[in-house]
């Protein structure tokens, strides 16, 4: 019985357009024009501070990073109700449940905001657990992925051998690798498909396709 660890932002939650708008608000005070989704995918990486340095073509100071971080989250919060689940997210979630699979969410969005927000989409009814970022804005996902897997095993009786991650970034792939679990990458989020294909893991264009692939990975 497969267990999928879903990424939230850019995977289950189709928020790329509001992320791009939020990043544009961040770089405007530095004289940079608004960015496009292509610009975002061309430069996106983690830690996020390195993404902004790539976007602006120079190093940023700690004070500038603090300002950017504040502007991003303020703008994102003002726009987040303009985004919705990915087109086939509900279908993929139901498909896994119908196959007697289980699922959870691990996101780098703040835990205290992620938990109530996902409740509005009915996620608490279908997910074994929902974990967000409890560290800082520059944190990598690997440590939190390992902790999430440990909680699934210890608190929910999930076997590591049954777990597959589904995400949209290189960071998701690195986090899964660090936890010793396979991953399927979804091309509807932060990176160009040709970049994801270089990671050497399965890449899909729909979330239902990701669910269908889990049986070959566990």
Give a quick summary of the entry.
With 218 residues, the protein is α/β, with parallel strands linked by helices.
What order do the strands of the largest sheet run in, or round the barrel if closed? Answer: 5-4-1-6-7-8
Work out the number of β strands: 8
CATH superfamily of the largest domain: HAD superfamily/HAD-like
- How helical, in percent, are the residues? 40-55%
Tally of alpha and pi helices: 10
Major β-sheet, in short?
6 strands, parallel
Q: Quaternary state, please?
A: single chain
Number of domains: 2
Global outline: globular
Q: At the first level of CATH, what is the class of the largest domain?
A: Alpha Beta
The separation of the N and C termini measures: 9 Å
What is the level-2 CATH architecture name of the largest domain? 3-Layer(aba) Sandwich
Averaged pLDDT: 94
Question: Stretches where pLDDT falls below 50 for ≥5 residues?
Answer: none
Radius of gyration: 17 Å
Report strand %. 5-15%
Structural class comes to alpha/beta
The CATH topology of the largest domain is what?
A: Rossmann fold
**N to C succession of SSEs:** EEHHHHEHEHEHEHEHEH
Which helices and strands occur, and which strands form pairs?
Elements: E1 3-6, E2 13-14, H1 16-27, H2 37-43, H3 48-56, H4 62-79, E3 84-85, H5 89-98, E4 102-110, H6 111-119, E5 130-133, H7 141-156, E6 163-167, H8 170-179, E7 183-186, H9 193-197, E8 203-204, H10 207-213
Parallel strand pairs: 1-4, 1-6, 4-5, 6-7, 7-8
Antiparallel strand pairs: 2-3
Helix pairs in contact: 1-4, 5-10, 7-8
């Amino acid at each position: 019985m497969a267990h999928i660890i879903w990424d939230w932002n850019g995977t289950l939650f189709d928020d790329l357009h509001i992320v791009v708008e939020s990043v544009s608000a961040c770089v405007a005070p530095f004289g940079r024009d608004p960015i496009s989704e292509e610009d975002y995918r061309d430069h996106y990486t983690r830690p996020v501070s390195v993404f902004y340095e790539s976007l602006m073509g120079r190093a940023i100071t700690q004070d500038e990073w603090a300002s950017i971080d504040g502007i991003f989250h303020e703008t994102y919060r003002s726009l987040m109700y303009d985004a919705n689940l990915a087109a086939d997210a509900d279908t993929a979630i139901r498909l896994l449940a119908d196959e007697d699979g289980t699922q959870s969410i691990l996101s780098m969005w703040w835990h205290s905001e992620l938990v109530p927000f996902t409740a509005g989409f009915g996620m608490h009814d279908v997910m074994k657990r929902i974990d967000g970022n409890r560290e800082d804005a520059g944190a990598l996902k690997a440590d939190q992925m390992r902790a999430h897997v440990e909680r699934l095993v210890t608190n929910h009786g999930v076997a590591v051998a049954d777990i597959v991650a589904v995400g949209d970034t290189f960071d998701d792939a690195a986090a899964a690798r660090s936890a010793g679990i396979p991953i399927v990458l979804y091309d509807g989020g932060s990176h160009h498909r040709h970049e994801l294909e270089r990671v050497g893991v399965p890449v899909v264009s729909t979330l239902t396709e990701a669910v269908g692939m889990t049986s070959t990975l566990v």
